[in-house]
From TrEMBL:
Residues 1-13 have a biased composition (Basic and acidic residues). This is Uncharacterized protein. It comes from the Bacteria. Residues 1-23 are annotated as: Disordered.
Length: 63
């Protein structure tokens, strides 16, 4: 009689923990991207206020 082939328990634990670490890294990356996006929007709104309307804004962005 053959025993059913099963992976060692410690191997499953290792793979699941590595997935968790990867998820944490991914979440951190998304947060950093989001913060950079927010900073960019703030910068754009400030530069828009400093420019004389849309034309000055476009000139500033194009520069």
């Amino acid at each position: 009689s053959q025993e059913p082939i099963s992976r060692p328990h410690h191997e499953e634990e290792t793979s699941s923990s590595s997935v968790k670490i990867h998820q944490k890294k991914a979440i951190r990356t998304v947060r950093n991207d989001h913060q950079a996006h927010v900073n960019c929007l703030i910068l754009l709104s400030k530069s828009f206020a400093a420019c004389d309307g849309w034309q000055g804004f476009y000139n500033a962005v194009a520069a």
